[in-house]
Design a protein that fits this description.
The complex is a heterodimer of chains A (57) and B (170). By secondary structure, chain A is mainly α. Chain A has three helices and no strands. Chain B is an alpha+beta fold. Chain B contains two helices and ten strands. Classes of the chains: A mainly alpha (57), B alpha+beta (170). The interface between A and B is medium-sized, with 23 and 32 residues. The structure holds copper (II) ion. Chain B: Its main location: other.
């Protein structure tokens, strides 16, 4: 979208794209990633594999 | 095509996550040997269980050094045999079927959990440890008495198993 909007000002576009750093989004994704990894470790390794009578056949 | 540096990071993270999930399941299968309940057993006639070698007389049978097989019939509203008695530290293969409607067979609080479908035999192999008493619940709604449908799995000591076994056959 920014490409079409700034089509008349190509110099602005080149600089603006590099300076656009959504650190908030990155941080949010990092937190979400950590939650998913921890949840999976808990669900699979601790709750599932840690239970009695693991089905082996 | 230009991809923002941050976007590369979260693309990489999502791939790492997928590989981690796949890797975990692979580890489970290779390491602890987690298996699925398959449809490997042949179909049987649910209306003629009394003529079936295994299910005419639901029981626990020794099939190897430390291996036991339990033939279990689920019905409205219970499990036969109840309790299922097996010795400690053994490998137990449960073969479960139903003689009427679909039931569930879940050793409460454990991973031993399958459906009991009339005409089908579900085979679940587990390794039991210390003597312990487990409850078995039906987790498929099977009729008016579903809520009261329960069974027992008793893991007993070697000696107890021997004596109970002798008692049963007399
Ligand atoms: Cu039931």
């Amino acid at each position: 979208m920014s490409r079409t909007e700034t089509a008349g000002a190509p110099t602005d576009d080149a600089g603006g794209d590099e300076e656009f750093d959504p650190v908030g989004t990155l941080a949010l994704i990092a937190v979400y990633f950590a939650i998913l990894v921890l949840a999976w470790v808990y669900i699979y390794y601790i709750e599932f594999l840690g239970r009695d009578l693991v089905v082996v056949g | 095509m230009h991809i923002h540096a941050y976007e590369k990071i979260w693309l990489a993270l999502s791939i790492v996550l997928i590989l981690f999930l796949l890797g975990s399941v692979t580890y489970g299968a290779v390491g602890p040997g987690v298996a699925m309940v398959a449809d490997s057993e042949a179909q049987i006639d649910a209306n003629a269980l009394d003529e079936d070698d295994r299910f005419a007389e639901p029981r626990v049978e020794q099939v190897g050094e430390n291996e036991y097989e339990a033939y279990v019939v689920a019905y409205q509203f219970g499990f036969d045999p109840s309790p299922i008695v097996v010795p400690e530290d053994s490998t137990v293969t449960l073969q479960i079927t139903s003689r009427d409607v679909i039931h569930g067979f879940e050793v409460a609080g454990t991973n031993a959990n399958t459906m009991a479908v009339p005409g089908e035999v579900a085979e679940v192999t587990v390794e039991v440890g210390e003597p312990q008493e487990y409850g078995i619940v039906c987790n498929e709604y099977c009729g008016a008495g579903h809520h009261g449908m329960e069974g027992k799995l008793h893991v007993v000591t070697e000696e107890e198993f021997e004596s109970e076994d002798g008692g049963d056959s007399e």
